[in-house]
Amino acid sequence: MAFRRLIPSPLLGLLSFLLLHPITTTSTVGAGTRLGLIRNKPYSSNIPVFREAPAFRNGDTCGSPNTTGRIHVAMTLDANYLRGTMAAILSMLQHSTCPENVDFHFLAGDFDSDIFLTINSTFPYLNFNVYHFDFKRVHGKISKSIRLALDQPLNYARIYLADILPADVSRVIYLDSDIIMVDDIAKLWEVDLEGKVVAAPEYCHANFTKYFTEAFWSDPDLVRTFQGRKPCYFNTGVMVVDVDKWRKGDYTHKVEEWMAVQKKKRIYHLGSLPPFLLIFAGNIKAVDHRWNQHGLGGDNLEGKCRNLHPGPISLLHWSGKGKPWLRLDSRKPCTVDHLWAPYDLYRSSTLSLEE
Ligand SMILES: *[C@@H]1O[C@H](CO)[C@@H](O)[C@H](O)[C@H]1NC(C)=O
Ligand SMILES: *[C@@H]1O[C@H](CO)[C@@H](O)[C@H](O)[C@H]1NC(C)=O
Ligand SMILES: *[C@@H]1O[C@H](CO)[C@@H](O)[C@H](O)[C@H]1NC(C)=O
């Protein structure tokens, strides 16, 4: 058995003790040191350690949290973005009037019990489910985009939400892992979809042309896709989805069809976003821009710092190449990253052991 990472020697002593006296639950050890993820078998994965978030309880106005009043949130779980996900969860709970009414649905590629333990030890009171997203589902369907990170199978999991979520979930808020909620999520949840399948902020001043290639715009059959609607850009990192309508309309299949077209003839540059634009742009329920201050990660190609757009803010989104936790760690944060830092629950890199 070897230690994969450098562990300070007092911790090493503690670890040897714990290895000799294995415990399966989270426990408080020594001078308030909270050690999650201690278990009686060595780690197989590379999961960071987080400190425990406080308990968030419903306010008096919430009523009894029962099935009718639940708010369903779906996110992906990936060891590389876990620090972002944890911060995002904390931000949602902290700004909710009725945090106990929120149900989290996590989609994970590796169906690893360490992930349950990590969430349990960080948020002992969280209502959540973890679902396995089988990468085979998108095998052979993903085309290379301009950025490797966009080609990860888990990025495509949002397309399969309607298949993966339990049948009694009829509406869901899908959120990327690089977001911070600074408002009550219930306000976004209650949006009137007015018969649309998707609600999101839309950006009609953005140059829509650039999301598709010359090959697309020069093919009259393809261009006809947008006939009868005024397509506007929207970001798929924050969406309210009518899951029932999605199921009935078989939109999963429609997205997959566009992915097949892309495989044959490169019609766009980005990953999972353009098929959503092809199907829904100009036909979504537009919500206030405050619900997605996107692009805070910086430019897709250059990775520059971005400032906040003017106007009220309910959700901050570090879409783009740069992630706040990486920039903070490298001591070269952008100004907006200081807005993310208070939600960081990261404690240390994995106390990981190998056989
Ligand atoms: C759920 O809660 C609401 C408000 O507290 C209540 O009116 C309703 O009857 C409850 N439904 C069930 C199924 O318990
Ligand atoms: C996580 O916590 C829930 C609720 O307390 C419990 O049912 C579940 O078994 C726990 N999972 C793990 C892996 O500890
Ligand atoms: C929009 O983008 C396309 C493709 O990049 C470019 O050719 C066009 O000039 C742009 N239009 C405006 C109004 O900026």
From TrEMBL:
Cited InterPro entries: Glyco_trans_8, Glycosyltrans_8_dom-fam, Nucleotide-diphossugar_trans
The enzyme's E.C. designation: 2.4.1.-
Position of the signal peptide: 1-26
Primary subcellular site in the record, as a coarse category: membrane
Recorded GO CC terms: endomembrane system
GO molecular function: glycosyltransferase activity
Localization annotation: Endomembrane system
Keywords noted in UniProt: Glycoprotein, Glycosyltransferase, Membrane, Signal, Signal-anchor, Transferase, Transmembrane, Transmembrane helix
Pathway the protein contributes to: Glycan metabolism; pectin biosynthesis
Membrane topology, record value: Single-pass type II membrane protein
Similarity annotation: Belongs to the glycosyltransferase 8 family.
PANTHER family listed in its UniProt record: GLYCOSYLTRANSFERASE 8 DOMAIN-CONTAINING PROTEIN (PTHR13778), HEXOSYLTRANSFERASE (PTHR13778:SF5)
Protein name: Hexosyltransferase
